[in-house]
C-alpha cells in the first residue's frame, strides 16, 4: 500500500495553469479522478508546496493536512521549498513524482526518515468498504525513530513497524487507547492517547517528528463514508404476528391472547405483500 | 510511472477551465513583483485573467491534532410514539450483531436506534429505528405488531435525550420479502433526512425461526 518516492527530474510543464484545483470534499474518487491529501510531518519547517511548478500551498505548517483534492488521474510533480523561497528551483524535498491512478485515494506525506532526513512518501489509503459496525485504523511510521510497537492498553496490536511502513486494522467501532513504544518494549514514547475509530471511517494515524529531538507526535487523518449497511433486520422471533399459514404450529396461550391483533396484521399483510 | 506524460497532458487540459473557480478565499498573494497586476483585494472580487502570478488554489487545510477527532455527539432518541395507533416505546441505541445484522433490543416493548446512522432531527441521512414484532424475551407481541396498520400521513413523534421532540409524517408503508430489501438504500448516511421504522412481517418460518418479510415505514420531517 505504500510507495517510496524518489527524485524524478524537473518540474512539470511551464505555464500550466494550477494543477491542484477543483477541491472537493468527496471521499471516494469518481471515474477518472483521484483523491489526494498532503500531510506536513517535518517538524520546525514551514514550507511552500509547488505542484507542476505552480505554488499550491503557501506557508504550510508542520502537523497540518491539506485536501482532500479531487484531481484528474495522472502524474504530478511536487516540490517542497522553504516558505520564503521565490520559486521551486531549490526544493528542500523533491521534486518528486506522484503517480495518481483513477479511483484511488492517496496521502502524500513530507516527513523525516528513520535517520532524520526530510523525505516524502506517497501512501495509498484503503477506501474499501468497512463491515457494518467496524472502523479501520491505519498506522503509519513517519518519524525519525527506530521500529515501534503500537499498544492498545497493555497489548501490542502492531509490532515492529518501521519508517515508512504502515499497518491496517479493521476493528469494532470505538475508542482505542493507543500508545507508541520502541519495538519490544511497553514504555510509551508517544501517548497513550484515545483514538476514536469511528464506524465506516478509515482513521489514519501518523507517528511523526523526531525521537532524538523529543518532538514525536501523532497526526490524524480521517476518510469517511466507507460504511456498509447491516445485512438484515431480524425483528421477530415467535411468529405470533405472522400472516397466513400460522395455524399448524400454534404454541399455547400467548397466541390466543394476541389473536385480535394478529387478525389485523393478516389482513394488512395480504394487501401489501407480494404473493408468496 | 511510465505513462505519466500523456496522462499529465490530459490532466492539464482538464483543469485549466476550472482555474477561475478557485479564487474565493485566497487571503493573499505573496511576494508581489512590481509589474504584477493588482492583487485581489476582496474575496468576492471578480478575478482578472492573470498571466504573471496565478492565484493560489483554495485548498482546505486542517489540523491533524488528535483532539479534533472527538466522537461526534449526536443527540440520541429516547422514545417514539405514533398517536394514531397508540404505539409508544422507548428507544435504545444499538449497533450490529456478530452475524452482520442490525442489533434489536430483546424486549419487543423497546425499539433500537441504529447508532451509526443519522439521529432523528439531524439534517442529513436516514435515522433507522427497529423493534421486534414479537420476541422470546417478551413472550408475546410488541407495539410494532401494529406497524403495518400505519397509514400515509400518520404522525410519528420522536423524543430526544435533550427533551426536544421531532415530528414526522408517514409517507410510505411497505412490506417486502427479506431477500428483496436493499438495505443500503435504507441505511443511508446522506441525502434528505428521514425516519425509517422497521419490524418483521409476513409468514413465520419455523426452522429458520424467522419471518419472511420486513415491514418498512418511511416518514419525513414535518415542516421540512
Structure description:
- The complex is a heterodimer of chains A (276) and B (224).
- With 276 residues, chain A is mainly beta.
- Chain A folds into three domains: 1-125, Immunoglobulin-like; 126-235, Immunoglobulin-like (Sandwich); 236-276, no CATH class.
- Chain A contains two helices and 17 strands.
- Chain A has a five-stranded mixed sheet, with no helix packed on it.
- Residues 1-26 and 244-276 of chain A have low confidence and may be disordered.
- Chain B has one helix at residues 4-16, and strands at 61-63, 77-82, 87-94, 111-114, 126-130, 134-135, 140-141, 155-160, 165-177, 194-205, 210-221.
- Helix content of chain B is 6%, strand content 33%.
- In chain B, 38% of the residues are buried.
- Chain B has an eight-stranded mixed barrel with strand order 2-3-4-5-10-11-9-8. Chain B has a two-stranded antiparallel ribbon with strand order 6-7.
- Chain B is mainly beta and 224 residues long.
- Chain B has two domains: 1-61, no CATH class; 77-221, Sortase, Chain: A (Beta Barrel).
- In chain B, a hairpin with a 4-residue loop joins β2 (77-82) and β3 (87-94).
- Chain B has one helix and eleven strands, in the order αβββββββββββ.
- Chains A and B meet through β4, β5, β6, β15 and β17 of A and α1, β1, β6, β7 and β9 of B.
- β5 of chain A pairs antiparallel with β1 of chain B, so a sheet runs across the interface.
Short description:
The complex is a heterodimer of chains A (276) and B (224). Chain A is mainly beta and 276 residues long. Chain A contains 2 helices and 17 strands.
The sequence of SSEs of chain B as H and E is HEEEEEEEEEEE
Chain pair with largest interface: A-B, 89 and 86 residues
Spatial strand order of the main sheet of chain B: 2-3-4-5-10-11-9-8
For the record, the count of structural domains of chain A works out to 3
CATH class term of the largest domain in chain A? Mainly Beta
Amino acid at each position: 500500500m505504500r510507495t517510496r518516492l524518489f527524485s524524478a527530474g524537473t518540474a512539470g510543464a511551464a505555464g500550466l495553469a494550477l494543477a491542484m484545483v477543483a477541491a472537493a470534499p468527496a471521499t471516494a474518487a469518481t471515474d477518472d479522478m483521484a483523491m489526494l491529501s498532503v500531510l506536513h510531518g517535518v517538524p520546525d519547517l514551514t514550507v511552500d508546496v509547488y505542484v507542476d511548478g505552480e505554488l499550491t500551498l503557501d506557508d504550510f505548517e508542520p502537523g497540518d493536512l491539506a485536501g482532500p483534492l479531487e484531481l484528474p488521474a495522472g502524474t504530478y510533480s511536487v516540490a517542497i521549498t522553504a516558505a520564503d523561497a521565490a520559486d521551486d528551483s531549490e526544493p528542500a524535498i523533491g521534486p518528486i513524482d506522484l503517480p495518481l491512478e483513477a479511483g484511488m485515494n492517496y496521502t502524500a506525506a513530507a516527513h523525516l526518515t528513520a535517520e532524520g532526513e526530510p523525505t516524502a512518501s506517497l501512501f495509498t489509503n484503503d477506501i474499501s468498504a468497512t463491515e457494518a459496525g467496524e472502523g479501520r485504523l491505519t498506522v503509519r511510521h513517519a518519524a525519525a525513530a527506530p521500529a515501534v510497537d503500537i499498544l492498545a492498553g497493555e497489548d501490542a496490536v502492531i509490532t515492529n513497524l518501521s519508517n515508512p511502513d504502515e499497518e491496517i486494522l479493521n476493528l469494532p467501532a470505538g475508542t482505542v487507547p493507543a500508545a507508541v513504544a520502541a519495538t519490544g518494549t511497553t514504555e510509551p514514547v508517544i501517548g497513550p492517547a484515545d483514538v476514536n475509530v469511528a464506524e465506516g471511517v478509515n482513521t489514519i494515524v501518523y507517528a511523526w517528528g523526531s525521537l532524538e529531538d523529543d518532538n514525536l507526535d501523532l497526526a490524524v487523518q480521517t476518510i469517511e463514508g466507507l460504511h456498509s449497511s447491516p445485512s438484515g433486520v431480524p425483528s421477530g422471533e415467535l411468529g405470533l404476528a405472522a400472516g397466513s399459514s400460522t395455524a399448524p404450529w400454534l404454541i399455547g396461550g400467548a397466541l390466543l391472547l394476541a389473536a385480535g391483533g394478529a387478525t389485523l396484521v393478516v389482513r394488512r399483510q395480504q394487501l401489501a405483500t407480494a404473493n408468496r | 510511472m511510465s505513462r505519466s506524460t500523456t496522462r499529465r497532458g490530459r490532466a492539464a487540459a482538464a483543469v485549466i477551465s476550472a482555474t477561475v473557480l478557485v479564487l474565493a478565499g485566497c487571503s493573499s498573494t505573496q511576494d508581489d513583483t512590481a509589474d504584477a497586476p493588482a492583487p485581489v483585494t476582496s474575496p468576492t472580487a471578480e478575478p482578472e485573467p492573470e498571466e504573471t502570478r496565478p492565484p493560489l488554489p483554495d485548498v482546505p487545510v486542517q489540523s491533524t491534532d488528535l483532539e479534533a477527532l472527538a466522537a461526534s455527539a449526536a443527540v440520541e432518541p429516547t422514545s417514539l410514539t405514533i398517536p394514531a395507533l397508540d404505539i409508544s416505546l422507548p428507544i435504545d441505541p444499538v449497533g450490529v450483531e456478530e452475524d452482520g445484522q442490525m442489533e434489536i433490543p430483546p424486549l419487543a416493548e423497546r425499539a433500537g436506534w441504529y447508532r451509526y446512522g443519522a439521529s432523528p432531527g439531524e439534517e442529513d441521512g436516514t435515522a433507522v429505528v427497529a423493534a421486534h414484532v414479537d420476541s422470546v424475551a417478551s413472550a408475546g407481541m410488541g407495539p410494532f405488531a401494529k406497524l403495518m396498520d400505519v397509514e400515509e400521513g400518520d404522525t410519528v413523534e420522536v423524543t430526544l435525550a435533550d427533551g426536544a421532540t421531532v415530528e414526522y409524517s408517514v409517507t410510505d408503508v411497505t412490506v417486502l420479502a427479506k431477500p428483496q430489501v436493499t438495505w443500503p438504500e435504507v441505511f443511508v448516511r446522506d441525502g434528505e433526512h428521514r425516519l425509517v421504522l422497521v419490524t418483521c412481517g409476513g409468514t413465520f418460518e419455523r426452522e429458520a425461526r424467522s419471518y419472511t418479510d420486513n415491514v418498512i415505514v418511511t416518514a419525513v420531517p414535518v415542516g421540512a
